[in-house]
TrEMBL record:
Naturally occurring in which organism (per UniProt): Perspicuibacillus lycopersici
Name of the protein: Nuclear transport factor 2 family protein
InterPro entries, A to Z: NTF2-like_dom_sf, SnoaL-like
Boundaries of every SnoaL-like domain copy: 8-134
Length: 146
């Protein structure tokens, strides 16, 4: 799927919609083929779109099997952009809703940073870092500081 993202906001909106629709190819269209991701779930890192595709496919499959729709909200969004590079950092909240009833089941908030570059006038994510703060006494993640 080839989509042109001419504004940073287009990238973020596509991310949100693709997650909600559980559309792997639409989601991956947001990323550069050489993407490097440090994710706070599962793997230490993903290098390249093929590795990221495996993780995203498993994530969306688990949501379908659980009958869950996931809504994404970006909060405290900061965008630093120049001609061909941009960085975005924010708090991202993923709220899971039961598909049939729409009832909210759970939510988590973590931190995310995207590094984007513009190629042929279209933005794509080439680096992503997802993190959660850790309680130093228990070693457990703190999922809902917000």
């Amino acid at each position: 799927m080839t989509i042109g993202f001419y504004k940073i906001q287009d990238v973020l909106e596509n991310y949100k919609c693709a997650v909600y629709e559980k559309d792997v190819e639409r989601f991956l269209s947001t990323y550069d083929v050489e993407v490097h991701i440090y994710d706070c779930w599962g793997n230490w890192e993903s290098k390249g779109i093929s590795t990221w595709r495996e993780s995203v496919s498993a994530w969306f499959k688990s949501l379908r099997e659980d009958g869950v729709s996931l809504k994404v909200d970006f909060n405290d969004l900061v965008v630093e952009e120049n001609l061909n590079l941009a960085f975005v950092h924010c708090a991202v909240t993923f709220s899971a809703h039961e598909e049939v009833s729409g009832d909210k089941l759970r939510q988590i908030t973590n931190r995310i940073t995207f590094g984007l570059r513009k190629v042929n006038e279209s933005w794509s994510i080439f680096h992503e870092l997802s993190s959660i703060p850790i309680n130093t006494e228990t070693g457990s993640g703190i999922f809902n500081l917000r």
